[in-house]
User: Fold these one by one.
Assistant:
Number 1:
Amino acid sequence: MLGTKVVSLGGGHGLATTLKSLRQLTQNITAIVTVADNGGSSGRLRREFPIFPPGDLRMALAALCGDDEWGRSWAEIMQYRFSGDGSMQGHAVGNILLAALWDRDVDPVKGLDRVASLLKVVGRVLPMAAVPLDIEGTFLTSIGRVVIRGQEQVASAHGTLDSLRILPESPPARPEALDAIARAQWITMGPGSWFTSVLPHFLVPQQRYALSQSTA
């Protein structure tokens, strides 16, 4: 499988775990990451800046860091979270770095590529859509149908999921992601939350079509 072109879809710790395994088999990896997180450090940064939630993208970059002292050291720094009780408490260094690059440069993929270069990343990390997203689900509960918005809230909701949406409902995909899917020989998905890390990848129309046309 050495050299096989692989696209890995997902988000959070599940995707990061998959990437750590895949890198042992091939260096041609493209991680396509969900961009709807609204909790923790990512959620706080989203509320302050009009940017992608950086957390899942940061974890994917760290999982694919260069396998030398430089890459591993920077990956560890990227994952470090500030302690204390101040406004920086809980923020990961990598989240702050990505937010700064995105605030400086209009194109978020350029920011991701710059961090990838710093970490000597194997492969490439891309967002699932060209714009930040929200997740909204309709659940059937003991009190009737309840609409819940937010990735963090949907992931912990009680009841039976009736429908799932992303907002905006038809976001554009990144052309780099569509190209990677078209070229892929293998495509992996997950593991992770079915509602917030897996299904959202099928709710981006251009990406869903690209996946349906893939011969991987």
Number 2:
Amino acid sequence: MRSHLSHCFWLLVALCFLYRRAAAAPRLPVRAVNLGGWLVTEGWILPSLFDGIPNKDLLLVSVQSDGSVVATATSPGKSETFRLVRNAGKDRMQIMAPNGLFLQANKDSTVTADYGKSTSWGDDDPSVFAVTRVTGLQGEYQICNGYGTAKATPILKNHWSTYIVEDDFRFISKSGLTAVRIPVGWWIASDPSPPAPYVEGSLQTLDKAFKWAEEYNLGVIIDLHAAPGSQNPFEHSASKDGSQDWGTSAANIAQTVQVIDFLASRYAASPSLLAVELLNEPLAPGASLESLKTYYRDGYNAVRKHSSEAYVIMSNRLSSPDPTELLEFAGGLSRTVIDVHYYVLFNSMFDTFTVQQNIDFIKTNYSSALSTVTKQNGPLTFVGEWVAEWQVPNATKEELQMLANAQMDVYGKATFGWAYWTLKNVNNHWSMEWMIKNGYISLKN
């Protein structure tokens, strides 16, 4: 009798586990929301994060008595005053330090103020710097570098613990959404000792997110939003200066695969793990198709090493002339998804569109584009980012409802589903929370 009861007990436990796993895995297509600006900083989403940085970007650079160059000063002084000497074309410059010598880049990757020779402005001169003007970047690199580790750590930990909380997951589930797409940065795999200037703590926050997702039966899409070297020059890839260096070497690709392996290993057992997105918005031509396919295959294998069930999402390249370039490749693998992002923004042609022109573009152009990548025997399709925002001035609530509904109707045909960008934002229309609470978006149908 005792043995029989014991067997019944363990059978009940097993059934409960299976029920929990089944309940936590949403049916496709999903209706999801991005948790943007949480674990990967984007200043435009919450500008106040940068309020404590005097110039909103970087610390002041200064020269120490031994000629070394550091970025630790918080107020300008003599040692932070440099003279810029430009060439005739003004596309190159030398930087003269307060000691009368020029800064030079050394072979050991340090910069020192100890170069006193004349220059011909050639590439072989370590004191000559190319001038590229980059403004407006407010990403993870800038916030960590701008505050410095000591200050950035408590600021970001407070942000992570207050910006998205358990009650948000409750709201997401109650509103009729079935999944969350969570952007993460590559440094999360090195937590609690990430490389400078990044700070520790985001991994523990992601752990909490999975716990909350399990509690409220939400699927989780882990999205590698920022890869080492940056897969595009934008702040959301944590580009340090607008450069794009991801995928330019085998070592870089291998490093990125290690991040995916770490994440898949850590969360494969969670009933809420729905998918791993290998990379967000790689930009062509900097991210070559050859490098991307190499990485996607290795990243896919890294996920499959730990999970046969999790979907593997592969983002299309931004600015690629061929939206179908990954279909055959991804179609040869199991449980794969192609991610496309559709906005009626970020292109000058939308600047003068009327309400009806925007709606028509979505129902015609984006509907056709989605059909082009949605094949019966191919990978699933996912509109991983969209928003009910446009360039129409003074749009009414009814017009914005039309915009949201048109997109949900069209993107609802994506076989994997869609995800709104983003849950919270100081710009109301970019905040799905605000849009739902104020009646602009309804998911109760």
Number 3:
Amino acid sequence: MKITTLGTSHGDHTYCRFNSSTLLETGDGMYLVDAGAPVEALLIRAAKRFEKLKAVFISHMHNDHVGGLPGLIKAFTKYPAEKQHMQIFLPEDGAAKGLELWCRAQHLTFPSLLCGVSTTYEGEFYCDEILRVSAVRTRHMMNDPERFASYSYVFEAEGKRVVHTGDLSSSFDDFPQLVKKQPCDMCICEATHYNLEAAVEELKSFPIRKLVFNHIADRWHGAGENNLRKLISRLPYPCEIAHDGDVFTV
């Protein structure tokens, strides 16, 4: 699997980071985790072919994770190729209608034969000839976590397992239990919504082969990045801080 961290910022764009979007490539397929703006422009700059996109997995319905969806839908459907299809998975039942209306206001046809929409549910919810995807519920949507879902995702392909935490709660106790118990080849973990200094002590015991931090908080920008590097150097496995456009191979 090849993973490109297209956008690596927290809830706001910053001087060096755009909103959240991560590209997974395996076999002949491409998959997105989140679609923060300007995801379609970042795919174009990375010379990616839109017709290879098979699915988009949205972790939760905050603007920094979904704001680029209309532009992505436009780019995907404007110059269609034969047998091209992309399915967008949203974490809330009511979200599809809102996206449909916003696309309609921009004179975009959605959903369509080229681009469909489904609701994510906990457990294994997606499987094609290349990739299996499972969702693990988190408590990031603290205003109403029972009504408004947020998810971590587990991706399995080519005999590898990659976990993307999505956004977590401030307590860090919703970090995916799977990662605490079963080895994963890579974990992509957000670095904004919890006390990372305390979390490092817990992370030490997890069977992770490589940890990549993304969704980078303001305090870890600029000179603060060196402080983050010192902090994560305590971990017993390889760790990296993702930047926009970084590429990782699993």
